[in-house]
Amino acid sequence: MAVEDKKKHIVMVVPRGEAIRNFLYSDTIKILSKYARVTVLSVVDDPIFVDRFRAYTDKFIHIKETKKAPKILTSLQMVIHDAHFKWLKSAAAINYFEVNEKRAKEKGSLARFRLRNIFISPLANKKALQALTILENNLTWKYRAGTEFEQLFKELKPDLIFNTSHIHGPAGELAAKIGRKMGFRVAGFIFSWDNLFSRSRMTVRYNDYLVWTPKIKNDLLRIYPFVKGEDVHITGTPQFDYHFKDEFIIPKDELARRIGFDPDRPYVLYSTGIDRHVQQEHLHIQSVIDILAEIALPDRPQLIVRTYAKGTSKETYAIRDKNIPGVFFPKVEWDEVTITPSYNDLSVLSSLLRYTALGINVASTMMLELFMFKKPAINIAYSPPGSNLDYVMRHSRFLDFEHFKPVVKSGAAETVHNITELKTAIIEAFKNPKKHLKEQEEFLKEMFGSTLDGKSGVRVAETLLKLAGVEV
Questions:
Q1: Domain coordinates of the chain in residue numbers?
Q2: Would you give per-residue pLDDT tens digits along the chain (472 residues)?
Q3: CB burial class (10 A; 0-12, 13-18, 19+) of residue 216?
Q4: Do domains 3-67+145-240+455-467 and 246-448 have the same CATH topology?
């Protein structure tokens, strides 16, 4: 038997493009490949992309769902989703029902919506949810015919299956459920800091869970009491590793040349949210443009707007197309079909954060990244003047979301509730850029501990190797 064949075999399931940034662009796959055989099952199959990782993989296999799930299974999954949200009662879950009730009313199906809620309510408890999850897993196994994973795992015989995005992407969940039923060890990465409160119930019973922070671990154990503490591993997230590595910083003059801004003048970085969640955000952008044009500062600030690859409104693009002097909308280098960031985009984002004088957004993860770069940050907590947003889509609702409430409470960002406060906060950020630095440092330390060191990808790899039975 060849030495390579004796190595443990780890299968990485990549069900969405953003997981590529976390585990294939980072140190994770490089370290895994030194000590184990690695097979990647990916929804992205672009040849150039595949070639980038060929040296680190035993096999690179394109995956997709080859058979549509039967209606009995998809209906059950929606019942579990709604019952879980009714039991969880998180701010995001409450808003989910608010939005759906509004839509039902507009469609003339309010009575049906309310009848469904009456049916769901008795199922919104721990015992019922666990029973429904077991039923869902059994039905998934029953109707697995036509999917590729059972045969794949028989051939691959993995020592560990790692779903890189625990609940995003049907292909990843299906692979994890089939792997578990076949008796393989399966680990999942809790993908983001909001997911336990804003996403559906986790119906995969993973053997092991990798998480960003101690708080996420505690939330996981509380929401899923059958999970054991020793099976939850705090690794940090490789998503932020690039910010702590000099090789991902582009010289400012070079970045300015690429984007078109003046490197000798400061700029404000506005990062947008997904347009369907943060509606009419273009009005906030216009407010910032107007404020920057009128405030009296020695060097008039420029504005760089980083749009969200997963959804940007036509109104925002209309502002871009005006080509306003001193306002820049750099192209976000993500594949538009697979929503996969390019490797080059890692450097662009880290560099934009490194050189910005101020960051502004609506309750974005980018807020954390601004703290990491010790930048003043403004959190917009009001619906823009001139908007006609319904109450259920109010921008202030994000302040109550469980993952974001600690940010507001910390005082690490300036939270503004109207356009006058926004103007005042922008001026103050330029006059006193270190005003919230102490609060930022304290917040990051409390949230992340020592994991903001550029080595989360390494910790993930080391954890996976240990779970697979590899001695490093």
A1: 3-67+145-240+455-467, 71-131, 246-448
A2: 344 568 999 999 999 889 999 999 999 999 999 999 999 999 988 888 889 999 999 999 998 755 678 999 999 999 999 999 999 999 999 999 999 999 999 999 999 999 999 999 999 999 999 999 999 999 999 998 777 899 999 999 999 999 999 988 888 999 999 999 999 999 999 999 999 999 999 999 999 999 999 999 999 999 999 999 999 999 999 999 999 999 999 999 999 999 999 999 999 999 999 999 999 999 999 999 999 999 988 889 999 999 998 889 999 999 999 999 999 999 999 888 788 899 999 999 999 999 999 999 999 999 999 999 999 999 999 999 989 899 999 999 999 999 999 999 999 999 999 999 999 999 999 999 999 999 999 999 999 999 999 999 999 999 999 999 998 7
A3: buried
A4: yes
Query: 79: which 2 tokens?
Result: 């019942």
Paired tokens of 344: 């080059």
Cα separation, 334 vs 18, whole angstroms: 10
> If we measure between CA atoms, which residue out of 22, 304, 59 comes closest to residue 165?
22
Contacts of 177 (CB under 8 A, 6+ apart): 137, 140, 141, 203, 204
Rounded Cα distance between 176 and 136, Å, is 13
User: What CATH number is given for 3-67+145-240+455-467 in this structure?
Assistant: 3.40.50.2000
Q: 388: helix, coil or strand?
A: coil
Q: What is the DSSP letter of 136?
A: H
- Residues facing residue 188 across a β-bridge: 163, 209
Return the sign of the alpha-carbon dihedral for residues 19, 25, 27, 31: positive
Pairwise CA distance, residues 25 & 39, whole Å: 15
Q: Which residues, at least 6 apart from 15, have a Cβ–Cβ distance to it below 8 Å?
A: 43, 63, 163, 164, 165, 168, 169, 170, 171, 172, 173, 175
Three-state DSSP class for 316?
A: helix
Q: What is the CATH number of domain 246-448?
A: 3.40.50.2000
> What are the distances in angstroms from CA 374 to CA 241, 340, 408, 412, 439?
16, 27, 17, 10, 10
Q: Which two tokens stand for residue 321?
A: 């197309």
- The CA-based dihedral angle spanning residues 331, 332, 333, 336, taken in that order and rounded to the nearest 10 degrees: -100
